[in-house]
Amino acid sequence: QVQLEESGGGLVQSGGSLRLSCAASGSISSINFMAWYRQTPGKRREPVAVLNNGGSTVYAESVKGRFTISRDIAKNTVYLQMNSLKPGDTAVYYCNINMYWGQGTQGTVSS
User: Fold this and answer.
1) What's the CA gap between 87 and 43, in Å, rounded?
2) pLDDT score at 1
3) Residue 66 predicted with pLDDT over 90
4) Angle at 53 (CA atoms; ends 49, 57), nearest 5 degrees
5) What whole-number distance in Å separates Cα of residue 34 and Cα of residue 52?
6) What whole-number distance in Å separates Cα of residue 89 and Cα of residue 48?
């Protein structure tokens, strides 16, 4: 079984930054897929950033140029650096590693 532990959410003013972390532990031999999603009340969970096994990245159009997904393979950890945050980025952020989900962490951006 695989467990994901998220951290790094919080409250920040518009224009500020947050860095999310997601560490995987348990029965995980290799990581093929890492991604961050976000969800707001009443809406579907949507992908924000994806990091494929080959190292290529894909970002949602709304976060391009502001968010960066990265990983530390040795630590089985994926990060999401979020800069120039806007109130519209307020959401619960979920990590996904090999199709396992983290518990979610709230990121709130005040205007």
Assistant:
1) 16
2) 85
3) yes
4) 30
5) 7
6) 10
Question: Which two tokens mark 61?
Answer: 């159009």
Q: What integer is the mean pLDDT of 33-51?
A: 97
> What is the pLDDT, as a whole number, of residue 17?
98
Tell me which long-range contacts 54-61 makes (C-beta under 8 A, separation of at least 24).
Answer: none
Q: Are 9 and 106 in contact (CB under 8 A)?
A: yes
Classified as helix, coil or strand, 63 is: helix
Q: What is the rounded distance in angstroms from the CA atom of residue 58 to the CA atom of residue 60?
A: 7
In the chain, the largest separation of any two C-alpha atoms, in whole Å, equals: 43
Q: Which of 32, 30, 23, 19 is nearest to 3 (CA)?
A: 23
